[in-house]
Amino acid sequence: MLRRLLVDGRDTFVTQETAEALLERGDACGLRLVLGAFDGADDDTADHLDDALFGVCCRSREDAERFAALCAVLVEDPDGAVRGEARRLLGRSG
Q: What's the pTM?
């Protein structure tokens, strides 16, 4: 169900709000769901997922450090899509 909300190409408001709520958790589980949603997301949906990531995870230095630490954990995730997105984001923030 969450995955469907995260990749709802017809309603990117739902996509972004769902992603932001998951990211507000500040844990690997929420971030993992959002990173996994990039797999198969159209360009517009991916833009909204990125907006949610950087809007929530990079509001402060502490947020950015926590985000980087979570991505560092997720580069070892069993899901290749999650691993790839975590690597992409670490490259962007580093």
A: 0.92
